[in-house]
Amino acid sequence: MKVCILVEKLSGGGAERSAAILSYMFAGMGHEVHMVSITDDIEYEHAGTLFNLGKFKNKMNGPLNKLKRLYIYQNYLKKQHFDYVLDFRFRQKLIKEKILARFLYTNVNVVYMVRSSNLAYYFPKKKKQSQRLFEKAHAVAVQTEAIKTKIEEKYKLKNIVVIPNALDFDEVNQLKNQVLDVDFKYILAAGGMQNDTKQFDKLIEAYSRTSLPQKGIKLIILGRGQLMESYKAHAVFCGVDEHVIFEGFAMNPFKYYTNCLYFVHCSKFEGFPMVILEALATGTAVIALDCPTGPAEMIADGENGILLPQNDFDALQHAMDTLVQDEAQRKTLAIRATDSVKKYSIEKVAQQWQELFER
Fold this sequence. Notes:
Order of helices and strands: EHEEHEHEHEHEHEHEHEHEHEHEHHH
Largest sheet: 7 strands, parallel
Number of strands: 13
CATH superfamily of the largest domain: Glycogen Phosphorylase B
Radius of gyration: 21 Å
CATH class of the largest domain: Alpha Beta
CATH topology of the largest domain: Rossmann fold
Structural class: alpha/beta
Distance between the termini: 13 Å
Strand content: 15-25%
Shape: globular
């Protein structure tokens, strides 16, 4: 089959990384893959042909330029005759989505991707019109049963499929063994800093109240975004700026997972967080605050990680201290981590996609 994967960009976030992984998965399944990026922001490696719409974007990005890029994308779809388009975009403007459905997606099977439990990212506000729009799609693909239930209850859609993120364990095993040049102990967090969803400010506060800074155990945070400078200032305010290290975007995060004492996750909400999946796949102990969907799908408390109540940063502070002191528990969690997520291998998730394509 011929598959188009439409993304806002190919860098930075877990959704974008999962799209890149899908391109390799589909290519491995024998399908012809095209990656279409709306912006000229390409960092993740991917399979297939790249069509960079961002190259046609000017500095003004006014209405005429947007219409021009829409017309270019329309012609590309017509020329390529795709069997499927996987649409990863945020979809918040109803009129825009109606135009796309009417003029672009009339002769192609569209799979609308939903990558977060915050449905406002993916569904316009008018509920009934959104329902009519999305019920015509081949499928709405979500990552967890919890998100599926939430959409069914709100929009009454019957074309929702649950397909989780996948991970290439061969790639993980190769990348995790690359050398990381650090000479200190550290714990790790990772995520985008475009908004406050990851709650890194609260994580820094919790870290500052633990015994870790006094023990010389640093906090490394991977990721970037417009809030990074405010997080750095917050580390200064909390008196731990010498202990909190902002590494920015890491093309290979796996070597950071492998060498840390444990990984910490504390988002407000999620879809199916790639960072937790990646950490567990490398055999790393994980502490996570639960949120509407995501962490509980992967972490069995006390088995392969520590799962805490949503937004309970006091509990997080205690767990961070405890897991540093309890080396035996860290090792036990780490030993169980990798096997616990083998069901998310590319081979197993590919079967679910093939079933959707053939349905």
